[in-house]
Amino acid sequence: MGNTYASLQYHFVFSTKLRKPWIHHEIEDRVWRFLGGFAREVGMAPILVGGMPDHIHMAVGGHPTMAISKAIQQIKGGSSKWMREAFPEMKGFAWQDGYGAFSVSKSNLPALTTYIANQRKHHRKKTFKEEFVALLNRHGIDYDERYLWD
What we know:
Structural class: alpha+beta
CATH superfamily: Transposase IS200-like
Number of strands: 4
Shape: globular
CATH topology: Alpha-Beta Plaits
Domain Transposase IS200-like: 5-119
Pfam families: Y1_Tnp (PF01797)
Strand order of the largest sheet: 2-3-1-4
Largest sheet: 4 strands, antiparallel
InterPro entries: Transposase_17, Transposase_17_sf
CATH architecture: 2-Layer Sandwich
Organism: Chthoniobacter flavus Ellin428
Radius of gyration: 15 Å
Number of domains: 1
Protein name: Transposase IS200-family protein
Helix content: 40-55%
């Protein structure tokens, strides 16, 4: 085959350090837009970014040459720096050390974007911890509860 063809979509999830509610309603649109723009800068194609005050969800398209760990490292690092500079009251802001990265088929993107868009409704019934463990279980990822949280 003379060319490379790929359809790579991902669901990234990560929280603020110690799940502190830093991302207030008044700034969330700016934060989501910045994260999407920064994802684009590092070679990802943002589809939808959203979340809650203590965590984010990103639906992104990937490029076959981009390592997921590198993309997330750059997104988290660049956005942490920007948030501390853009919002002086957030001098202590940081993301958690780890993250969740889940592959998503093209046919499941509508369900994922609906899920991200409805985070407020979703979190009336489920905490971030419950949500994240459910994602790990749904994707068949082994984990040790002792190492999930800061």
